[in-house]
């Protein structure tokens, strides 16, 4: 496993981290607790020492499952737990709330669900236009001083928002969407992170399964699975993305003896101070981790990959559809 140091609190994290949104069940068609726990422990066996969760995932369920999985055998001490707050939910509808009172309340609830006395990395989940950044940042700074959290991160932030937060409290990580198909951060967030030594936790590393090579035009999703509404999974756009996946897979096999999945995760790791958040809910989904390590993509390969993307995808679309409502009155994604 390749490792990266998160500046400041001297935390050394694995460059592949386990993402546990799907493990919470909500927006992923349900969850299986025993299988989820086996997945978390399997990730640890494979050298992963960072787990990303959030209070809102499964409305507390994901955090509870992470807490339960790490509660035995001294696992908690071996792991870094990253969680997020600043969203609230009512009757299945979510909205942003980064007020000091909400953050304080959420930290206490997250600590309890995670069965721990400190959160290694506490992240603001989404910017909240209703609350001044300085107020949220001051609360995060207090939590740091109190020892309830060891490091601060932000998610879905612009560089300007990051700077405003950082003027009040130290920010060590930023968590944006980033994968071969969702590259908006290359224009601003990524160069800013490189310049400021901020680690980038890239979410949706597999583009919600699209970059694994297992999705076909016939794939169907159940229940509340977000991919039923994900613009990339709708025709005619889906056909373009599937053509890209197929060509990337051929390219990876011919040039590196790898699959498109390994290529996709390697590509993220080769872009800078990045950590790939890999969402998995079954142990076997983590089997390819080894294929990602110990090689890299050169400039020529990067150029060829860009050529494949440009030739296959005419109407690229980002990950904006996951954004929650900015205020309780507005519509939610759920
Ligand atoms: P992802 O990692 O791109 O994709 C996860 C899905 O890919 C899994 O649920 C699984 O789908 C499929 N998959 C994983 N490994 C596979 C394999 N080996 N073979 C075939 N399919 C495989 O998407 P994500 O979970 O949305 O993103 C990763 C993490 O980023 C999240 O869990 C969360 O921690 C974080 N995140 C953060 C934000 C934010 O706003 N900060 C937003 C989104 C995500 P099936 O189980 O259905 O097969």
Give the topology, please.
Layout: E1 3-6, E2 11-14, E3 16-19, H1 33-45, E4 50-52, H2 61-70, H3 75-78, E5 80-85, E6 87-90, E7 93-96, H4 100-114, E8 121-124, H5 133-146, E9 152-155, H6 159-166, E10 173-175, H7 189-196, E11 199-202, H8 237-256, H9 260-269, E12 274-279, H10 289-292, H11 299-312
Parallel strand pairs: 3-4, 3-12, 4-5, 5-8, 8-9, 9-10, 10-11, 11-12
Antiparallel strand pairs: 1-2, 6-7
Helix pairs in contact: 1-2, 2-4, 5-6, 8-9, 8-11
This protein binds NADP nicotinamide-adenine-dinucleotide phosphate.
Residues 19-22, 52, 125, 155-156, 175, 203-209, 212, 214, 261, 277-281, 285, 288, 322 line the site of NADP nicotinamide-adenine-dinucleotide phosphate (NAP).
Uncertain segments of ≥5 residues (pLDDT<50)?
A: 329-334
Query: Could you describe the largest sheet, including whether it forms a barrel?
Result: 8 strands, parallel, barrel
Class in CATH?
Answer: Alpha Beta
Name the bound molecules: NADP nicotinamide-adenine-dinucleotide phosphate
Total DSSP helices: 11
- Helical content, roughly? 25-40%
The spatial strand order of the largest sheet comes to 3-4-5-8-9-10-11-12
């Amino acid at each position: 496993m390749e490792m990266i140091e998160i500046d400041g609190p001297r935390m050394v994290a694995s460059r592949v981290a386990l993402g546990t949104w799907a493990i919470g069940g909500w927006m992923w068609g349900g969850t299986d607790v025993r299988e989820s726990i086996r997945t978390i422990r399997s990730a640890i066996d494979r050298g992963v020492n960072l787990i990303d969760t959030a209070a809102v995932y499964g409305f507390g369920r994901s955090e509870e499952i992470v807490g339960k999985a790490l509660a035995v055998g001294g696992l908690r001490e071996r792991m870094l737990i990253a969680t997020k707050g600043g969203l609230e939910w009512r009757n299945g509808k979510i909205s942003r709330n980064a007020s000091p009172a909400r953050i304080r309340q959420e930290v206490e609830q997250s600590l309890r669900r995670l069965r721990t006395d400190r959160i290694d990395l506490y992240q603001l989940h989404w910017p909240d236009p209703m609350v001044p950044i300085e107020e949220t940042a001051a609360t995060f700074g207090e939590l740091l001083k109190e020892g309830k959290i060891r490091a601060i991160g932000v998610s879905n932030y612009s560089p300007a928002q990051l700077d405003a937060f950082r003027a009040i409290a130290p920010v060590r990580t930023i968590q944006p969407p980033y994968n071969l198909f969702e590259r908006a951060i290359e224009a601003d967030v990524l160069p800013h992170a490189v310049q400021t030594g901020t680690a980038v936790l890239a979410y949706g590393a597999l583009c919600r399964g699209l970059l694994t090579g297992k999705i076909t035009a016939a794939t169907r999703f159940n229940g509340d699975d977000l991919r039923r509404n994900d613009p990339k999974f709708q025709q005619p756009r889906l056909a373009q993305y599937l053509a890209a996946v197929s060509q990337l897979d051929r390219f990876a096999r011919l040039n590196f003896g790898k699959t498109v999945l390994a290529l996709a995760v390697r590509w993220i790791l080769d872009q800078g101070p990045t950590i790939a958040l890999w969402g998995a809910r079954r142990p076997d989904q983590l089997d390819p981790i080894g294929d990602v390590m110990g090689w890299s993509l050169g400039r020529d390969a990067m150029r060829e990959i860009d050529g494949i993307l440009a030739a296959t995808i005419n109407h690229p679309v980002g990950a904006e559809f996951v954004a929650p409502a900015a205020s309780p009155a507005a519509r939610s994604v759920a």
